[in-house]
Amino acid sequence: MKLAVVDYAILAIYFGFVLGIGWRLKSKISTSGDFLTSGRSVPVWITSLAFLSANLGAQELVGMSGQGAKYGIMTAHFYWVGAIPAMIFVGLFMMPFYWASRARSVPEYLKLRFDEKTRALNALAFAVMTVFSSGISMYALGLLLHLILGWSFTTSVLCSAAIVLAYTFLGGLTSAIYNEVLQFFLIVMGFSPLAIMAVMKAGGWSGMAARLKTMTLPNGMNGDVMTHSWKYIAHTNQNPMGIEIFGLVAGLGFVLSFGYWCTNFLVIQRAMAANSASAARRTPVIAALPKMLLPFIIIVPGIAALALSQMALGYVLPMKDALTPDYDQVLTTLMAKFYPAGMLGIGLTGLMASFMSGMAGNVTAFNTVFTYDIYQAYIRPGKADHHYLTVAKVTTVAGVALSICCAYVAQHYNSIMDLLQLVFGFVNAPLFGTFVLGMFWKRTTGHGAFSGLLSGMLAAAATHGCTMAEGKGGWIVTLHTFPSTMAQNFWVAIVAFTVCTAVTIVVSLASKPRPESELTGLVYGFTELKHDEGVAWYKRPVPLAIAIGAVALFLNFWFA
Amino acid sequence: MLDLRVPTGFYFSIVGVILVAMGVFAPSERAALTDSNVNLYCGLVMLAFGLGMLGLSRLSKHEDS
Known about the structure:
The complex is a heterodimer of chains A (560) and B (65). Chain A is mostly helical and 560 residues long. Chain A has helices at 5-26, 32-39, 44-55, 58-71, 77-101, 106-113, 116-149, 153-169, 176-201, 204-213, 245-263, 265-272, 277-308, 330-338, 343-379, 385-410, 416-440, 446-466, 485-510, 541-558; strands at 467-469, 472-473, 480-482. Chain A has a three-stranded mixed beta sheet. In chain A, helix 6 (106-113) runs antiparallel to helix 7 (116-149), helix 7 (116-149) packs across helix 8 and helix 11 (245-263) packs across helix 17. The longest helix of chain B has 27 residues, at 38-64. The relative contact order of chain B is 0.24.
């Protein structure tokens, strides 16, 4: 892929704008903390788009289009079964609660609700997750630089690490929310033309379906499975994801999705910046509407790519080696085939922008958690403020260095989304169990939460160690082989969540409960929740949620 | 608070103008798998979106004062 001067110009203009917004905002708000806590004045359409955009990283763009080519329209389950119900749940049930308890981070909530050891364990797990997440982005950005500039992978990864460091130190995060909205529009306008052109070239949806029906997939299945999301779900050996309905609904729809959306404060914080409790509740619900349409711009091009590769047009799927396709490159190779100089610049700007904000967000989360929840809490408490500031800077550099290592791990997976969901299974799945019990069951104790969380993570490791999928896992003994890494991920999550919940309940019942007077604002039933009456229906979360849920249901039936 | 519609509007207007200019002055610039003037059409959409954003922010400023 070769870039023209105009492409570089478009890239440069975007980064000029990002720095400009940061500079303008810096003179108006003194700290980023201001923005998220006392600020609370951002209009609901901005918080909704930022809420969506904080999750819509380049990982999702590159990863989900790759998944489209690998698993077909079943990938849309990540949205129509996974994200949408979880987002509606977060809006209706979790937001009022977060708003009332005013916890600023997950470790902070765990400390208030349980105890120090639970907080420390979660802080460690969270730190590992952010490093992996930024490492995966770094790998994908390195891949992109490699493709455009022809540098070696190592040079490209080191270069993308340098870009992230510069971006983080320049204070790019003060304006994170604003940039995320700009980035959202850039992604929609930069990628929907690609989706439209790729699908039209492949003969429209029906043409694509007909073309795929006559082909045999790399795994020997008939291509018809690529255009039906529910038809082949009855048995694991009928669909490319290798999952049956229980694993899908429980693993993806419940544990992974609810775990991700309920406990990911990077995303939750966006809603907390809204100007009222009601607006905070509506934020995830409103964001669910554009979210459920994203498969059409992200996943469908991946499926189209597979159809196009059958058409003797000169388009072939990118390959990692002779046998394994390199799904992470599906999106970029499509862009190179459909976009002329100019529009190509827009697409690349969208990708680069979301890589960078995704990485910067994770690196900053890593340094916050390490500096305040680990270093200040346990290693060196009670030092002067500037000491922690220095530590935070050193931590940022260390976080980037660790991310580079993870970028090399990501290289061994043929789709970054497979690795990302595995990490979520280790960290978010048990955490979700702890959270739900802590919030809704007053009897949950600190000892219970800690042992549940720890055994949940160990159970995830044991499941991964004892099962095999596409050559991954099985580092203890191979007791079972999954047809795909995604199926393995779903089951890792299910086991982790179940074990965490069971152990938490048993240990809680055996240990001394906390007095109810200490649980105000931390547990449902001890928290005063405000209800909004007498406002128009479209300003109330519940009717909105019903309307949006109905649309998601319709999409599920339409593409079944 | 900075009105986000202003920078968004400016950014997409500028990019839209660049793309439309590409579409008009370099119409032979085509990608391998398409015959349509992608830059021109996408540029027009972005320009319209950018101007729309700027218009909206002018409108709400008008209402405030």
